[in-house]
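User: structure tokens for this one?
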Amino acid sequence: MHATTGRGMDATVNGEPRPPLLSRLGEWLNPLVVKEVRQGVRSRVFWSFFGLMLLACFTIALAAWSSTLEEGGLKPMGRSFFFAFFVCLGVVHFFVIPYSAYRSLAREREDDTWVLLILTGLGPRRILRGKVGSFLVQGGLYASAVGPFLLFSYYLNGIELPTILVVLALGGCWLVFLTVWAVCAATMAEGRIGRALVHFSLLGSLALALMYGLVSAFALCEEGFLLFRRERFLVYFAGCFLWMMLTGGWLLFETAAARLSLVTENYSRGPRLALVVQVGLSGLVLLGGWLYVAPDRGAEVVSVLGCLYLTLCGLVLATDADGQARALRAGTRPWSLLRPGAVRGLRLAVLLLLAWSALCGVLLWLSPSGSSWREVTLEAVLAPPVFALLYMTLPVWVVRLPRAGRSASAAVVRFFFFILVLLASMLPPFVAILFGESGGQKLFNLLNPFVGLSAFLEGSYRWTAPELSWSLWAVVALLAGLSVFLADRTLVARERQAHAS
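Assistant:
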């Protein structure tokens, strides 16, 4: 039974002084957040960028004040100065903080201090949540310093308060996604060369992300909500991009946690479950939006984009480690697709591709016919899944033979995938020219992932002969089915071999 007396600092619980509020919050929070925040705010990097950002904002504020004196306060200048203040915040939020989060986790792995963090018993997910949360707290400190300047730009006229809130909200979502992305990138490479490649790739990606964030903020500042009212397509694009940021951030976080987990743990459950939920919810959202808008075309575009995304995800799933740890084999069922193993990852990727193709078929059936210049055919919607299955599984069974050794690593399979796509797009036009035909001849480019797929999407085969389109689609589908079967049997044989050894 608790006995509480007094007020404030004099309050007692069971006769002992109650700890201060900040101490209780520190115990409730992830301990790694408290440690990283304390370490971060004491670093030179934090105070250097914090001081430079405040100095830049103060200089811009002085320029704004002098401009109002010259113009007599009649000219609206809030839009320009808000974007100038946002640039100062965006450089820190979209580049410095994600890169610092990457270096923090990469340094833990390079200095072999990651093992000490694991021994604390927090686990990979809590450690990553602590890393991400600490840098988001630092981002909040930066934003709180720039906040008065952003509010000051509102009183300069020329920009609406809802526009300011929307820009800041979208910028916050972009910050969270980039931070999670950077933390995930720190778990990708193991060797020194791989880490160097990831490092330079991340620098280039963050530079592009910074440019994209500032350009988007500038467009919103200049046009405000009128841009969305005038261009309805931008509303759908912004909604889809925001949805992909939220669900993609969850998937990247689970992927990073899986890469840092032990092989004896069920490390694949988190990322695979996140991918299934993402695809399922995306399908439901897309179906609901399709019923509301009722567009006359676009099912083929949805099919291409979804299959491209699932092909890249499926390539990662199908290149998982062969077999399972002994602790995970008990009670394993063939349909437990969330468990570790390359064969289960391949089957999950195939099922997701088939489900997405079925969804696109439903969207095509719901679309009104006869209102566009070219009616989209069913084979055009079903062509992207068969091309995706063919090029996703072909590298798996070609490279990962049952007796293959180091040449069957995940990096080799993924590298061979890009080489295969490159050769399949370049060799058919060359062969067509050797036979005296045009390089864009459709039959020679039937298996071309670019020309052949575009021929199905444009209905070129149907224009030649309606029955030819389905016949050629059946040929590609037969090859894709054979490739899926060979890849599945190859991975099953490798899993049995891994269990037997």
